[in-house]
Amino acid sequence: MLTFLNKLLIGPFYAKNAGTFLVILLLAFGFLSATEHKALITAALGSPFFLAIVFVLWGLYLLKTISFIWQELTAPEHFFLQTFWLVPKPTRWALWLAIQTGLLLPIIAYAGWMVQMAVHYQKWDSLSAIVLVMLALIGTGAAAADYRLRHPNPESIRLPHLTVRLPYELFFPTFWLRYEPLSFLLTKAFSGLLLAGVCRLYPTDDYDQRLLLIGLLLAILGHSQVGNQISEFEQKYLLLLPNLPLSWLQRLRRYALTYGIIWLPELLILLRNCPSDIGFEYIIRLWLTGWGALLFMHSLAYGRNIIPDRWLSGVLATFIGGLLAIMFGVPVGVWLVLGWLGAVGFWYRSVRT
Questions:
Q1: Where would a tag sit more exposed on the chain, N or C end, judged by fewer CB atoms within 10 A?
Q2: If DSSP codes are grouped into helix, strand and coil, which group holds residue 247?
Q3: Residue 279 backbone phi and psi in degrees, to 5
Q4: Which 3 state secondary structure label does DSSP give 246?
Q5: Do the beta carbons of residue 226 and residue 140 sit within 8 Å?
Q6: Environment class of residue 276 by beta-carbon count within 10 Å: exposed (0-12), middle (13-18) or buried (19+)?
Q7: Are 214 and 282 in contact (CB under 8 A)?
Q8: Rounded to an integer, what distance in angstroms lies between the CA atom of residue 335 and that of residue 331?
């Protein structure tokens, strides 16, 4: 039974999120050295605040695993799993605990590294907190999976809601926040924490502005799935949109404003964590570059049936090529111009063809 559930849940989870894990691995082990990782772990072990931030990130990952299991349990092709609740409760819980342990394996491995360092530095309070949190995460995930198994169609409480007329530019951001909050939270948390961390890391050594550009590149690639989400949203809810009497420039302006709203939190993060050696105008140019790059990716993908594996390969190639160009000293002004010109050019081409 465990082998069957492993093939049904654990394998597809890692396959579905391979792109996310790839970006995390590139960030964690390509961008930071082992010494810097140890320094971060040591700081977390000695600071309850930083340790709490680590626990929050682990909690976000747990929510992602719970969301995946709930989706799989309610998928039409997996309705036969409803008979799983007939398995005796101790056996069922043991299986859920094993499945949740497999899904949480990446953070369990990192927690093991933290426990090893906690033993080395004799941080017994932090060690106890890490072990208790890991047990709580595994138990919570198993309980959530078993609850959804026993309640496949839970009744929801309907509350009165306020109807507000939204402009088109807010359609997708509102939908994303309301109906896909986990995707929104993970995307913005990854991008925001990455930019904040790069800004905080900047004054600690002899870094130059290329460090900020590398952080910006990773934050942009963290939004690489947003264009596909917008296309799916329009194909499902805005079927008449392509037939509206709007020029290509009017359509581009609407998408530009939509991406500007999506990218706005990054501006606040950059301004809040701006290094003292970096001027305000450079931060603005950095943010405008990211805005143009998001619109550029949208223009590349709009109206095309792109295979996910091919898109992921393109994202990886963009990261490698962009990293090399940044290391060779291509300034932010060039990226700014290329991003916006590329967005306008490819959009005009895709609409006219």
A1: C
A2: coil
A3: -75, 160
A4: coil
A5: no
A6: exposed
A7: no
A8: 7
Contacts 24+ apart (CB under 8 A), 319-322: 319/26, 319/217, 319/218, 319/221, 322/217
Tokens of 23: 């970006």
Q: Find where tokens 């008979």 sit.
A: 83
Tokens for 256, please give them: 């530009």
Task: Please check whether residue 113 is in contact with residue 38, taking contact to mean a CB–CB distance below 8 angstroms.
Answer: no
Of 93, 71, 72, give the one whose Cα is nearest residue 139.
Answer: 93
Report CA-CA distances (Å) from 77 to 80, 147, 181: 8, 19, 25
pLDDT tens digits in sequence order for the chain, 353 residues long: 667 677 777 777 877 666 566 556 655 655 556 676 677 788 778 888 888 888 888 888 888 888 888 877 777 666 666 666 677 778 878 887 888 888 888 888 888 888 888 888 888 888 898 899 999 998 998 888 877 777 766 554 444 545 667 888 888 988 888 777 778 878 888 888 888 888 888 887 777 888 899 999 999 998 988 888 888 888 888 888 888 888 889 999 999 999 999 999 899 888 888 888 888 899 999 999 999 999 999 888 776 777 777 777 888 888 899 989 999 989 999 999 999 999 999 888 877 66
Residue 32, SS3 per DSSP:
coil
Q: Where are the domains of the chain?
A: 2-150, 168-352
Q: How many CB atoms lie within 10 A of CB 112?
A: 12
Asked if residues 36 and 115 have their Cβ atoms less than 8 Å apart, the reply is no
Under a CB-based contact definition with an 8 Å cutoff, are residues 283 and 271 in contact? yes
Q: Is 8 helix (H, G, I), strand (E, B) or coil?
A: helix
d(CA 173, CA 237): 14
Whole-number Å distance between alpha carbons of 229 and 235: 10
Which two structure tokens, joined as six digits, stand for 118? 């906690």
- Decide: 6 and 100 in contact? Cβ < 8 Å: no
**Rounded distance between C-alpha atoms, residue 190 and residue 275, angstroms:** 20
Do the Cβ atoms of 217 and 309 come closer than 8 Å?
Answer: no
Q: CA nearest 183: which of 131, 114, 233?
A: 233
Eight-state DSSP code of residue 29: I
